Amino acid sequence: MLLRGGTSKGAYFLAEDLPADTAARDELLLRVMGSPDPRQIDGLGGAHPLTSKVAVVRASADPAADVDYLFLQIGVDRAEVSDRQNCGNILAGVGPFAVERGLVAAGEGRTRVRIRMVNSGELAVATFPTEDGRVVYSGRAEISGVPGTAAPVVIEFPGSGGPLLPTGQARDIVAGTPVTCVDNGMPTVLIAASAVGVTGYETPKDLEEDLALADRLREIRLAAGKLMGLGDVEAATVPKLTLLAAPRHGGAVMTRTFIPVRCHTSIGVLGAASVAAGLRVEGGVGQHVARLPATGDRLRIEHPTGFLDLESGIEYGRDGAVPVALRTAVVRTARKIFDGTVFPRPSGAAQHP
């Protein structure tokens, strides 16, 4: 099934319909998506990381969850399949897909699906409207980066209770640059845009074409990955890098996020959750950039095509030194685009990316 989840689009599969062997599964998915090829002309992929994604879903053996969700990022112009991160946008379609495939029975008026995110072992709960045993996709919820409106999918992430700062520090100097390393569902490195010589208001295209910036960000990402305990991240999609600038449209902060090389046209759900929590860290790089509300947990994160609203809070332990993340909730939308049979490119076909 092809669904739009949030501001991403992906192919959703039942785990039982894919090979059990990981290598065979990945080889098949590359052929399904049309990779490696910059246009993915021979598959389902949309020639961009945001539209080259896969969700693998199965009934969960975990009593705390209804379904297990494995996210796979499919390389566009490279034959790569990565499971090293979650995706909060594709997550928005997992609950509806579970109902569509009969893994979860539709409730009366709305359905609540408990999801175990296999990539990280964390839990999320998605709630969305259902009627007469079917998912309702039409509605009035609007999210930036998606035309029109759709039914709301409310996604809640209970606080893990784990440390928010993987390095144990509110601020680190990485490759000569002040950063705050955060993980509230997505390993993310927060950087003041001014610290790398840009304003933070440039278009994603302009930022991608800045070769000096690309070299600087690569150096920061590789060093931060080791500092965050992620090891060598040269071939990984995490950590993400988010540049911060003062808000322009009444939000808390303006962002430009690299995923990890391309600049996101908006911002990922889990990335935004990490940004929101990181902004509240005392002594972090966002402290003098962001404009936080005086009360409440709701924040508006501005990005290149609009904004994302979420609720996020942190608290400090008894020692007052190590913050932990509390509940995070966000409203997304999802839409079923296609349900049917995909015909993969023949195995062993010559590739000329």
Molecular structure report:
With 353 residues, the chain is α+β, with helices and mostly antiparallel strands. It is built from six helices and 17 strands. The chain has helices spanning 22-33, 88-91, 94-100, 204-208, 211-227, 269-279, and strands at residues 2-5, 8-14, 53-59, 67-74, 81-82, 109-117, 122-131, 134-135, 152-157, 172-174, 177-183, 187-192, 240-245, 253-258, 298-303, 306-316, 323-338. Strands 1-2-3-4-6-7-9-17 form an eight-stranded mixed β-barrel. Strand 16 and strand 17 (323-338) form a beta hairpin. The longest helix has 17 residues, at 211-227.
Give the topology, please.
Layout lengths: L1 E4 L2 E7 L7 H12 L19 E7 L7 E8 L6 E2 L5 H4 L2 H7 L8 E9 L4 E10 L2 E2 L16 E6 L14 E3 L2 E7 L3 E6 L11 H5 L2 H17 L12 E6 L7 E6 L10 H11 L18 E6 L2 E11 L6 E16 L15
Parallel strand pairs: 2-3, 4-6, 12-13, 14-15
Antiparallel strand pairs: 1-2, 1-17, 3-4, 4-5, 6-7, 7-8, 7-9, 9-17, 10-11, 11-12, 13-14, 15-16, 16-17
InterPro entries: OMA_tautomer-like (IPR047687), PrpF-like (IPR007400)
Keywords: Isomerase
Protein name: 4-oxalomesaconate tautomerase
| SS elements, strand count | 17
Strand content is 25-35%
Name the poorly predicted regions: none
Helix content: 10-25%
Spatial sequence of strands, sheet with the most strands: 1-2-3-4-6-7-9-17
Gross morphology: globular
Q: For the terminal residues, how far apart are their CA atoms?
A: 26 Å
Topology as a string of helices (H) and strands (E): EEHEEEHHEEEEEEEHHEEHEEE
Structural Rg:
20 Å
Our count of helices gives 6
Overall average pLDDT = 94
Protein name: 4-oxalomesaconate tautomerase
Family: Belongs to the PrpF family.
Keywords: Isomerase
Pfam families: PrpF (PF04303)
